[in-house]
Design brief:
A five-stranded parallel beta sheet has the order 1-2-3-4-5, with no helix packed on it. 0% of the residues lie in helices and 11% in strands. The protein contains no helices and five strands.
Length: 132
């Protein structure tokens, strides 16, 4: 489902609960500031693009067990949280945010996780040693 640049302030108008088999959701360039529980029924979702929105925090991804690609670029994120349940996540784009600490990335570190690509360009990260 592609709703790129549709001016959406929230996910409510999409009625995602009626689309449990959805695998790709492209929401680039909207005005979404919160996810709430709108994604709770999308356990089969593989790719989610929420870039260029107004997200200040990452909440509401807990039920996306199959998610492999997550694009959160160009939002207003200051920290990394809410991704610990994303065990299948392979690519995470957090570029062009206001992230200063990498501590939250520990949530997706370890043998049980699949993260292979991480984009942190144009953030305020001071110490990469936080990942050690």
């Amino acid at each position: 489902l592609s709703m790129i640049g549709a001016g959406l302030p929230s996910l409510a108008p999409l009625r995602l609960s009626s689309r449990p088999a959805l695998r790709v959701l492209q929401l680039h360039g909207n005005r979404i500031s919160s996810l709430g529980s709108s994604l709770d029924t999308l356990g089969r979702l593989v790719e989610l693009d929420l870039s260029s929105n107004a997200l200040r925090e990452v909440r509401g991804l807990e039920c996306l067990w199959s998610l492999q690609v997550l694009n959160l670029a160009s939002n207003q994120l200051s920290r990394i949280d809410g991704i610990s349940s994303l065990r299948c996540l392979r690519a995470l784009n957090l570029s062009y945010n206001a992230i200063a600490s990498l501590g939250g990335l520990r949530q997706v570190a370890g043998q049980e996780y699949s993260l292979a690509s991480l984009d942190l360009r144009h953030n305020s990260v001071a110490l990469a040693s936080e990942l050690a």
